[in-house]
């Protein structure tokens, strides 16, 4: 019952935005902007640029809202526009340099030695430290759920390059995890030796 009420309210909000009702547009922006800002920030790693992308994306959302077909998630539709706008920004600013190493594309790192006490915030912070190309592919694949084929189309690269970038991102993250785990364990060891 609650879901039906939510969907009815969402439908009404969308229709009001199609009519360019400023109150409805503000409500839509308030409802989704903070989550979408986080999405922009994951890609560009700069607060002011993420804010600029968010504003541009919402202008597109309001301009194209009548194209939403109501056959899928409205939030998913918004996310796609925001991701596309983030990638457009990166392409325009030449921050989207990807390199391919096909030998690494099929290798999976060994995660067995890592601590399982990693918090989500720590992982997101580590993802922000990835080199741009690695981070973009990792975000698209592992977080936003794009396939390698979709990533290749979005970025104008081959599927193998996408796989390679993902593999490199995972390897890079694994090294950071091992290093942080080692630092954490060595601190614990020194703490125990002082007690």
Tell me the layout of helices and strands.
Layout: H1 2-18, H2 22-44, H3 47-64, H4 74-92, H5 120-128, H6 132-143, H7 148-155, H8 159-194
Notes on the protein architecture:
The chain folds into two domains: 2-92, RNA polymerase sigma factor, region 2, helix turn helix motif (Rna Polymerase Sigma Factor, Chain: A, Orthogonal Bundle); 120-194, Arc Repressor Mutant, subunit A, CATH 1.10.10.10. Helices cover 73% and strands 0% of the residues. The chain has helices at residues 2-18, 22-44, 47-64, 74-92, 120-128, 132-143, 148-155, 159-194. Helix 1 (2-18) crosses helix 2 (22-44), helix 3 (47-64) packs across helix 4 and helix 7 packs across helix 8 (159-194). The model is unreliable at 99-117 (pLDDT under 50).
Number of strands: 0
Helix content: over 70%
Q: Tell me the domain tally.
A: 2
Strand content: under 5%
Number of helical runs?
8
Short description:
This protein is mostly helical. It folds into two domains: 2-92, RNA polymerase sigma factor, region 2, helix turn helix motif (Rna Polymerase Sigma Factor, Chain: A); 120-194, Arc Repressor Mutant, subunit A (Orthogonal Bundle).
């Amino acid at each position: 019952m609650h879901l039906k009420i939510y969907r009815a309210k969402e439908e009404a909000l969308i229709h009001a935005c199609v009519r360019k009702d400023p109150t409805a547009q503000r409500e839509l922006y308030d409802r989704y902007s903070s989550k979408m800002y986080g999405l922009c920030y994951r890609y560009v790693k700069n607060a002011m640029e993420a804010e600029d992308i968010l504003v541009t994306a919402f202008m597109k959302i309001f301009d194209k809202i009548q194209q939403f077909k109501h056959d899928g998630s409205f939030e998913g539709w918004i996310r796609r526009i925001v991701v596309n706008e983030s990638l457009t920004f990166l392409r325009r600013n030449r921050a989207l340099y990807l390199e391919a190493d096909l030998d690494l594309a099929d290798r999976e790192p060994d995660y067995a030695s890592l601590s399982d006490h990693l918090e989500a915030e720590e992982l997101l912070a580590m993802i922000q430290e990835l080199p741009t190309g690695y981070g973009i592919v990792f975000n698209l694949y592992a977080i936003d759920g794009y396939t390698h084929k979709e990533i290749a189309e979005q970025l104008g690269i081959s599927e193998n390059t996408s796989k390679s970038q993902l593999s490199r991102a995972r390897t890079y993250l694994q090294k950071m995890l091992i290093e942080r785990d080692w630092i954490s364990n060595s601190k614990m060891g020194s703490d125990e030796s002082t007690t």
